[in-house]
Amino acid sequence: MTDANATQSTETEKTKLGKRWLRKFIIFLVVCIGFGFYGLYDATIAYPNRGEKDASYRLLEYLRAADEAHSLALPLGIPQEQTPPDYLAQLKGDRQGLTERAAGEGGAARDARADLAKLEWLDALAKVWELTPERIDADLAGSPRETLDELAAEWETRDQPKPLSWYDIPVQWLFTVVGFGLGIWLAIHMLRVAGKSYTWNAGERRLGLPGGHSIVPADVAEFDKRKWDKFLYFFKIKPDHAQLGGREIKLDLYQYHPLEEWCIEMHKHARPEDFEDEDDDAGGPEHEPAQAAPQAESGEPESEEAPSEPRG
Predict the structure, then answer these.
(1) How much is the pTM?
(2) Where are the domains of the chain?
């Protein structure tokens, strides 16, 4: 054997991450993180801003109704002996009665309309998680008449904002958690995959496995391709292998390149009869792509192609 051949036989190659797998994985990662940021923006900026505008408009409507009912002379806001959530729940429980009384005439009807407007204002504050005594006191601080005039001037040229639903902000927080959670999981999984590699000594046809063990074609009792359409190769190891005897090894051909070529090389060397039809197919491609979804079992992104399958 020449020196060049000796060098070639002892040279060890190492797998890299599959480009198609990495590209699709990064796309999924970016989509998930982007989804998380989108939900975070809506939960902390877009929906709260819309809810604050609605609360401001509802306060204007409440002060107008209170001015019509009693010229803003009676106490506004929440009775001292009640908490805002309890008082809001009380108003909601009496909504039907208030609506019936508000349809009439006279002082009782005007008071009912004021209470209904107060209910809408408090409910708007609750939807942006601001239904607190401090917030209510701040909104009603100062002269009620001046506050009414300021809000009337502010909303004179603006349209009524679209109110929030009770679930709008919680759902956006759910989107945030799901998006960032999936993104973190994908990132961790990608780092775990990147932290493993396979090696190949062409001269010995020796496949080095993550963890330090290695096999040659003579160590494999069965080359199982039951999940070939999902980019998986299973090697059943002979019982006499020192470390892996009797075990079945699952090899992910989609995540690692060029692991597929090495596995087929081992298979051809150990079981050439499995490839007789392929050798007889003159002019045909050495590998035929399968038409099936990749790596569903291991939770990986789908691929346009499946690994090459010997047609023996």
Answers:
(1) 0.74
(2) 27-171, 196-312
